[in-house]
Design a protein that fits this description.
alpha/beta, Collagenase (Catalytic Domain), 4-stranded mixed sheet, 4 strands, 17% strand, ribosome biogenesis
Length: 163
Amino acid sequence: MELEIDIEQPWDADTDWADLAQRALEALVQVAPELDNERLLASVLFTSDSQVHALNREWRGKDKPTNVLSFPMLERNDLLHLSPDGPPEMLGDIALAAETCGRESVDKNVSIQDHATHLLIHGLLHLAGLDHEISEQDAIAMEALETKALAFLAIADPYGDRT
């Protein structure tokens, strides 16, 4: 899969967010091999809370910012049966909100880089047709994939402290 990445203010210019996104993808394909298809494209927008708020309001009818938005463009079944040969296929778009991501990283006592990596993996799994809001079983399965992918990057289980 190829990632098309756009980084806007207020994301910290000292971090290589494009490299972070690429490493997140490389870890994820180890646990979600359906994403390891050269035909796939996904766009990732590192942007502001205000931009994510506007997208959330317009596309999801929710008048608030959120940490990550995912806009899938392929059905899961189509992804699972996508031939490696043929023209590029747009998997979807992801947008991450800088201020929300920053606040959450402080609240969780993790670096913003680790939290953004988790959110990217989470968003890419949504693009792959997985959804934690369908059932508790789906949530557990999605969280397990996230945790396994993060482990390849030596990032702690973000769900490990749940009781």
